[in-house]
Amino acid sequence: MRLTVYAYRGAPARVSDPPGVGRAALHLGGLWALAFALPLFDLLGRNAEFFVARGSTSADILLLAFGFVLAPPLLGAALVWALGRIRPELGWAAMLALVALVVAGLLLPAGGDALGGSAAALPIALALGAGAAVLYARVSGVRTFVTVLAPAPVLVLALFLVVSPVRGLLLPSEAGGAVAGPSRSSTPIVHVVLDELPQTTLVDEHGRIDGRLFPNLARFAREATWYRNATTVDDLTASAVPAQLTGVRPRDGELPTTRDHPHSLFTLFERSHELTVVEPITDVCPARLCGADRPGTADRLRSLESDLEVVVQHLLLPADLRDGLPAIDNMWVGFESDSAMGSTTGPDEFRSDANLQRDVIARLVRNDATAGFEHAIASVRRRGTRPPLLFLHSTLPHSAWRYLPDGRQYPIEGFEYPGLESPDWVGPQWQVDQSFERHVLQVQYVDRLLGRLLDALRAEGLFDDAVIVIAADHGASFTAGQPRRPAQRSNIGEIAPVPLLVKLPGQRSGRVDDRAVRTIDVLPTIAAAAGAHVPWDADGIPAGERTVDPAAAIDIAHAGEPVLSAPLGSVLAQRSRREDYEGRLLRHGLYAIGPRPDLIGRHVDGDAGARPLSVDTGSGVLPSLVTGRAGRLAPGAVVAIAVNGRVEATTRAFRQDGRSVYAAMVPPSSLHDGTNAVALLEVLPSGALRPVG
């Protein structure tokens, strides 16, 4: 039997007339651009900071854009042509199969969400894709329509590269020129920005920085000025960090780049200081000053490829197939490290091999937070002819929460953010409290890293003469029913107040200052301490010039766009209520957070329903987040987790992926090398404990 297909003119054509490579490329290119390229580039175009955070150059972006839009359809067309040369039937079959797959890919995400999962949507999408291929073969009008789509790749590229904010990353810039800063200085400058750290996290029940949980920050506060009423001007990192570096309020549409922020801490002191800059999210330091500290091409492209793979899956898969993917909306870079360990460095271990500099920069682009401090400490130990200017923006303690206080990590796959559906906390408060517990553990690790940096400054004789600023870019909310971010009137007390500690040159005694300081005051404060002035029109002023004014208007923006304004007094009242809640939450200890802290320490039968857990305490990974199935327990049922015959945590069962599960942190000290016995016990109303089968 002779196979007959329908050619582009609408008349029957024999298999000896397969589509040419040019026509196949045009048709596949139009379909691919609509199904895959357009949604991806629309997302990336609205979030150009994605490229800034990875240090992507204009060449990287162009390679991605043209490669993603053109390479797949060209490869498909080449396949059609090659198979057609072997046998015309194979060429036609390949063309129709590719049309079917592209159409199915276009329909699958919406179909999966509408039909409740991929099990029902996948066969339907494939069937519809096959039907579209049949129409493509038989109906000339369909082929004409696909021909009309041929310009789609060009339009998608134009929208992405010319119209979207990404264009600001492609244009050459002479921005970032030197300003009239000092030519000499004897004042070392250290500016540390911590990411997503609410002021409330650091405070104990007496309103002081908690020395039990954060001994290094508390020690620093005894030698610095703590502006405890300081507030951020923006709730987004990419805007909040440049605000500290420039003293200028964020403006809508700006990118965190040298082009949009030509005058900064770096250009002000470039002639007088030796610069060491760690900017994992922003790119404010000009390349002529900071180019050596930026990742190489291979590291940039690997990071871009790894994270784009996760983004594409989130964008194009149905909801049920997205469940096991790393989160992409709670961190800037290193999405894969959200569930896989980004670093396996042992506790309190810093590397010092011959290729340290290259290794550290490569790890920075992978969101290895330890590497930032490692790089900073190494720079302190390299004494130059000029005083150091050290700027360190750490992506910690921002989520994903995965660090223990000693630097070891714990696996979090499948349990990254229970109770959080971006941007809101949708779970009960106990579930949010469990995330807060993990947040505090991560802040304790940050405190340890800060201690190392401060000790290095002391050891090198730089501490006393330096101006040292430790600040955060913004806070975060840990209240059920509220967004973790962005800021709203109901959570501003957790997001706007941020820690801001400033040690001036020669300062040896600490004090607390209640001035209405804003984060745009950081640069003017540093400049004044170093004997310089800010020669551009800054919105901030030195912190010491602010007034103590509870009625001061606290304006908060999101990506430079004004969101809300509230009197400082109301913001502080909301902050105080949260501090009181956290004080009650931590009353019995950090690992006792849970519904039954009174059960912590109770001894139980170590073999009752226990499962083995293998532990290597000397590795960089410790399974301190204990998780598993909770049998048939109803959501909210109180459970205790016993480790080696002793109750170490209490929590509640909850539903995930249709199953009853549990998750709780146990102290690292409860785990020993080798096999440990972990038991899940239901807490009965009487207080008795019953193993869960």
> What's the CATH topology label of the largest domain?
Alkaline Phosphatase, subunit A
Overall mean confidence score, pLDDT: 86
Shape: globular
How large is the share of residues in beta strands? 15-25%
Structural class per helix/strand content? Answer: alpha+beta
Q: What kind of sheet is the major sheet?
A: 7 strands, mixed
Write the CATH architecture name of the largest domain. Answer: 3-Layer(aba) Sandwich
Please give the radius of gyration in angstroms.
Answer: 28 Å
Low-confidence stretches: 1-16, 338-365
The CATH top-level class label of the largest domain: Alpha Beta
Helix content: 25-40%
Number of strands: 21
Q: What do we call the CATH homologous superfamily of the largest domain?
A: Alkaline Phosphatase, subunit A
Order of strands, widest sheet = 5-6-3-9-10-4-11
Instruction: State the end-to-end distance.
Output: 63 Å
Please work out how many helical segments DSSP would assign: 21
How would you explain this protein's 3D organization?
This protein is an alpha+beta fold and 693 residues long. The chain folds into three domains: 4-170, no CATH class; 189-295 and 347-572, Alkaline Phosphatase, subunit A (3-Layer(aba) Sandwich), CATH 3.40.720; 591-691, Immunoglobulin-like, CATH 2.60.40. 39% of the residues lie in helices and 15% in strands. Strands 5-6-3-9-10-4-11 form a seven-stranded mixed beta sheet, sandwiched between helices. Strand 20 and strand 21 (689-691) form a beta hairpin. Helix 3 packs antiparallel against helix 7 (152-163). The longest helix has 31 residues, at 429-459. The N and C termini lie far apart (63 Å).
